Amino acid sequence: MVLVLSPSSNFVPTFMWLLRREQRPVDCLDYTVDLCDYDVPYHVRFAIDNDVRCGQCYDVSVSSSGVILEKRTDLLQRAEVRVCAFDIETPKLPSKFPDAEYDLIMMISYMVDGQGYLIINRECLGQRHRGLGVYSKTRFQECFKVTNVKNEVELLQQWFAHMQEVKPGIFVTYNGDYFDWPFIESRAGYHGIKMSDAVTKAKLGYDPLEVNPEDMVRFAKEKPQMMASYSVSDAVATYYLYMTYVHPFIFSLATIIPMWPDEVLRKGSGTLCEMLLMVQAYKANVICPSKHQSDPEKFYKFYFD
User: Fold this and answer.
1) Cα 12 vs. chain centroid, distance in angstroms?
2) The domain that contains 171 carries what CATH number?
3) Is 208 within the bounds of a domain?
4) Angle at the Cα of 84 (from 82 to 88), degrees rounded to 5?
5) Which phi and psi (to 5°) does residue 126 adopt?
6) Per-residue pLDDT for 13 more than 50?
7) Do the Cβ atoms of 72 and 59 come closer than 8 Å?
8) What's the average model confidence in pLDDT over 117-140?
9) Spatial separation of the C-alpha atoms in residues 95 and 92, rounded to whole Å
10) Domain total of the chain
11) Residue 239 falls within a domain, yes or no?
12) CA separation for the pair 110, 116 (Å, rounded)
């Protein structure tokens, strides 16, 4: 942070005199002309100052002076990070949204390294599945390995154990921040399990199956094969959408923007442009000015008789 003070030479003695004589604090902002770089996150500042980017490869070594990062200029192709795309299916009461307090997870479908998996909770689906193939008119033809478990606890334990085994670097979901992840975490907590221990048609030419939410519970009992196909079709769509369009985009930007990949994906275009300008300002030894703040809007009071 750069603190720009008023050029008045009386600032320091006046400040000390006030503290000594009146014993009351002084607001330093009254003597401050501007604040520069004060809102830059630490990891962004580190990446800029040390010319480190998440989308590039480095040789890492440790010495008595600390950690040393040496950029591998010979490695231009992006690193192959293991990706897991997953989707959960849950029952629900009629005309209600699924509630993690009492609704169970019926199944989890996911893809890792192009291989599909489906875990079925037989508390909700009575018919036993041996194997399942997902077929479409495009190149995305995947077979899923099916595991039948007797209850939700075993479903969660099976999925957590597999995730600990394959250790994905990236998880991909549809609306996972607001539904899938919180729902899984809530259901895991209900069973005393802590997780810390543990666009499609237009882009791909692939139509995932669609099921009316009001029919899911009935189909789970009457048409379990349809529900299984519906679940895995979402996993296929999520996996290939990410690998085809999102993954290359994130890694390309992460080679020039001083942020970690999740921020590159979620930040707006204005923030990303600001990060690029900060990189160039550092190279040119220019202090970045503080963000422009508009004057607060004024509202008029209306009085009615």
Assistant:
1) 47
2) 3.30.420.10
3) yes
4) 170
5) -80, -35
6) no
7) yes
8) 64
9) 8
10) 1
11) yes
12) 6
